[in-house]
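Run folding on both entries below.
>entry_1
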Amino acid sequence: MERKIIITEDGSSTIYLPKLEEHYHSVHGAIQEAKHVFINSGLSLFSDKEISILEIGFGTGLNSFITFLEAQKLNLTVDYVGIEAYPVVSEEIRKLNYVSELDAIEFSGAFVKMHQQEWEIKKKISDSFSLTKRKQFFSEINDKNAFNLIYFDAFGAQVQPELWTEAIFKLMYLALKKDGILVTYSAKGSVRRAMQSVGFIVERLAGPPGKREMLRGKK
């Protein structure tokens, strides 16, 4: 499927899929969205801990890289697992401008390392950040009580409604440890109800630029 690199409103890049009319990140700002939804509303709830994170949709590696940067400020040791069925290719990765837009030139090697790492193998990106990339469909996830935090960053329900069902959120609920958190940019009523139906305590939060609300669920 054709993919194009475009620049979002905050100057950071994302990938656009013309056939689906869908973007990997918000056109209002890829970095702004990632920081608001996954860092400010998720990762920032943890500090001075060892935590495990599951990302649903590893994609461009933006969420993983920002987490790597922010975890150092929060004194976190992170075991990060990214799920992706259709990996981004090297040519596309080279065109992404996250390192420069995040003013993280000194950590450019970490971003490259994340993408060059083999699939299905856990490796250290730094002393305090380990990464495992798993090439699989979300419906194949069978982890139990394994994660403190889930970044649910699948393509929108209007494009892939099968990724926002009770069946998928049940897998997410089972994958979380007690008191674990799931954050997502979506605020659709059907998504909230699906999360609640499998046991999540769900709250609406202010959304990132361009969105009024987002959702956060607790196990």
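>entry_2
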Amino acid sequence: MEKDDESTDKSVKKVVVIGPECTGKSTLSSKLAEHYSTCWVKEYARRYIDDLNRPYEADDLLAIAQGQLANEDRLVLKAKDLLICDTDLIVIKIWSEFKYGFCHQEILHAIETRRYDLYLLTYIDLPWEEDRQRENPHLRSYFYDLFKSTLQELKVPFVEIKGEWPERKQMAIKAIDNILTPPAGCIKKQ
């Protein structure tokens, strides 16, 4: 995970969809990528865990983080103005600390050095759907509060996304449009 944000194209805005399990992150990421005709970074953990023939362990989270960042680095080169990321390393950090009591230093370093333009924090008001990778339906409120406080501590820009799908999508589009459109009186650099 040596590569940091200094090597990526600054003209591409990066938006992370983040939140507890089963809050519509992947669906929202897909809908936003379609709306903006851009690519999106799928959650690497899903494929990684599906391909394991054993339960995942703490060291797997480091491999997942590396895979997530590699996909992001590859897709940011294909994105024109916007890249949607279905989760980022904050998710892995929170999960690692909850499940294993620690987080790999490489993951923490990447969180400090990677920069994103906006986080969309998905709320827990969607019904729980069973999935073999989902583990804690009873802790969604706890994790939501933990994600929110972590984003606040990191002092990163975020917007809470709530409601039914049409409302969620419109809230997300409005937030993204605000970072894509310069404030009145400013001229956008080409």
